[in-house]
Design goal:
With 82 residues, the chain is mainly alpha-helical. It has one domain. The protein is built from four helices and no strands. The radius of gyration is 16 Å and the shape is extended.
């Protein structure tokens, strides 16, 4: 089974558990502030709104890791092939 599919199944199971128990999802992938970034919501928005969401992306995209630190992308220099 592909890792992406396993991840989606896990997220679906956690969402169903939260719905069934009435408790919030433990360590959610998207915070309330990041809800517009969910593909299921993003794909239904108007193009103008999509553009605004992407522009705001840097303020929406960081998410606390399991240890409470914020994940950030590591800058790397491009590899030159000669």
């Amino acid at each position: 089974m592909r890792a992406g599919l396993r991840h989606k199944l896990l997220i679906d199971l956690l969402a169903k558990k939260a719905t069934r128990t009435g408790k919030p999802t433990e360590d959610p992938i998207f915070s309330k502030k990041q809800e517009p970034l969910r593909w299921s919501r993003f794909k239904k928005t108007a193009p103008e709104q999509m553009f605004e969401t992407v522009q705001q992306g840097s303020s929406l995209s960081s998410r606390p890791s399991a240890r409470g630190a914020t994940k950030t992308a590591k800058a790397t220099s491009p590899t030159r092939i000669t």
